[in-house]
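Quick one:
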Amino acid sequence: MGKAPKRHSAEFKFRVVLESIQRNSVAGVAREHGVHPNQLTMWRKELLDHGAQIFERSASKQQDELRKQIKHLQQLVGKKEVEIDVLKGFVDFYAPPDGR
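Output:
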């Protein structure tokens, strides 16, 4: 039976890729961290190809948060409008006929 493949965290991959880019050395960095150079090359390619999505996700997360907040505030406004209508009904019902 073969060895089970190692699982590396996203933080580890990012650190190793960043170091390999800064030092411009795939083989040396791969050797130091116990990673096959081909694997490190794949991680580098993935980062360079999809790195811009990191910034898009944070913007979309912020938009999702704002949408949730807007929805919550709209629900509160709707609830307050219903409460105001109910209170107006009570005032009209219990107001004396002479308007005092």
